[in-house]
Amino acid sequence: MGAFHYTFFAQEIVFGRGALDQLGPLAERSGWTRMMLCATAGARARGALAPVEALLGERLMATYDRVQAHVPESDVTTATDLAARHAVDAIIAFGGGSAIGVAKATSIALEERRTGRPARAAFPTDQPLIPVIAIPTTYAGSEMTPVYGVTREVDGVSSKVTVTDPKITPKLVIYDPLLTLDLPPRVTAGTGINAVAHCVEALYSITRNPLSTAAALAGLRALSRSLVRCCENGADIEAREEALTGAFLAGTALSNVAMGLHHGICHVIGGATGAAHGDANSVMLPHVMRFNLAATAPQLAQAAEAMGIPVSGRGPDESAASAAERIADWIEQMRLPRRLREIGVEEERLPELARMAFASRTVHNNPRPVTDVAQLEALLREAW
Ligand code: NAD
Fold first, then answer.
1. Which residue from 199, 208, 207, 228 is spatially nearest to 141, judged by alpha carbons?
2. What is the C-alpha separation between 127 and 328, in angstroms, rounded?
3. Following DSSP, what letter does each residue of 14-66 receive, concatenated?
4. Whether 37 and 94 share a structural domain
5. Residues 6 or more apart from 20 whose CB is under 8 A from it?
6. Is a pLDDT exceeding 80 seen at residue 1?
7. Cα 334 to ligand 1 centroid, rounded to whole Å
8. What's the CATH code of the domain at 257?
9. 278 in the same domain as 158
10. Ligand 1: does its nearest atom lie under 6 Å from the Cβ of 188?
């Protein structure tokens, strides 16, 4: 793949143990004086928001601490009303992809309310009116990307719609591994597999480029050394630091390339059934890798090597198959769900989910063309 297109998103990344302490000085330097914080009720309940609120002091005008999974449209409207009432000039997301998604969608909605125009970048370098600051506490990687998904309900059916624009990308990201020490094993494992999926789909993306490939391989190396260790002992700070580095690399790889079947189908499953994103990723990733095996063997063989699987003397097909097997092993070791039926997906919904996935642009960016809805139904049945 010789030709490529790469966009930089003008982000500042601060990574390190205790990096959260830099939030106050960075807000001061940036001139943000009317900030809003977005987080889940869980983060409030476990006392994780108090330190952030203390660091911001009088700069914090409001906190929206009711973020729900999959970014329901109603969440965005409530958060935007709150942000508008307080005339905020920056939005902080503290948490996983859900908090970051609400902050991204709120920033865009607020800009549109204030200007009366679509908040779309005319040039990739255009900056948002109300920047997002992301403090990720999971490994999902949304902090690095120009994308959010929002869940809408139409005629009683809910589905997730994605919005992509350079202005959506958080402008400041603070990665502090100390904030991940309390991440429960199930969320550690599920969001870690989501990060692995970003690397895998970036490696075989139809729009991959040298930087996305380099980031994806480095991300896989870091995650394969650390993820299972984080699940076995959440307090292992070295493993946590390495996994968060892997999440940063995975998010970087994801940010600039088209994802494929795996991401497309997981969005449909999560949006339509409410299954946790990490759970849907765990069930689907080995199946999608096998589906894509013949079309992407050289790239999956690279993945195998990055995961530390000995590949010398083996052909690309064999190495590629071992990459899918290794990921399936991690999923088993970390006790993640392996069947759609375990995560609340009803069998009778499979044809509908297949049709919804067939309508997804992301699914059609898959390196192995998806030509028939029956292929997707068969894949879902295999995973059910
Ligand atoms: P999440 O944000 O829904 O968090 C899962 C749960 O973990 C929540 O209950 C949360 O409160 C809890 N949690 C988070 N951090 C914690 C901590 N340190 N300790 C204890 N509990 C903690 O899950 P997620 O998987 O991070 O994000 C999923 C969402 O993000 C989905 O909507 C997905 O589509 C989206 N996503 C978007 C992108 C993108 O590029 N736009 C990338 C990945 C995921």
1. 199
2. 41
3. EESTTGGGGHHHHHHHHT--SEEEE--HHHHHTT-HHHHHHHHGGGEEEEE--
4. yes
5. 51, 52, 55, 135, 174, 176, 178, 179
6. no
7. 18
8. 1.20.1090.10
9. no
10. no
> Is there a single domain that holds both residue 278 and residue 219?
yes
* Residue 272 belongs to domain spanning: 183-383
140 lines ligand 1 (CB under 6 A): yes
pLDDT tens sequence across 309-332 = 999 999 999 999 999 999 999 999
Distance in Å, CA 134 to ligand 1 centroid = 12
Give the pLDDT mean for 89-93: 98
28 within a domain of the structure (yes/no)? yes
Atom of ligand 1 nearest to the CA of 182: 19
Examine the fold and report which residue of 156, 179, 202 is the final residue of a domain before the chain moves on: 179
Strands 35-38 vs 90-95: parallel, antiparallel or unpaired: parallel
CATH number of the domain at 33, please.
3.40.50.1970
Question: Token pair 């990308």 is at which residue?
Answer: 169
* Domain stops at, among 179, 206, 238: 179
* Secondary structure letter of residue 147 according to DSSP: E
Mean pLDDT score, 90-109:
98
Structure confidence at residue 171 as a pLDDT band (50, 70, 90): very high
Confidence label for 157 from pLDDT (cuts 50, 70 and 90): confident
Residue 1 belongs to some domain of the structure: no
Rounded to whole angstroms, how far apart are CA atoms 7 and 91? 23
**How many folded domains does the chain comprise?**
2
Same domain membership, residue 247 and residue 159:
no
Please indicate whether residue 271, judged by its CB atom, sits closer than 6 Å to ligand 1: no
256 and 358 share one domain: yes
Percent of the chain at pLDDT exceeding 90: 96
191 CB near ligand 1 (under 6 Å): yes
One domain for residues 175 and 232: no
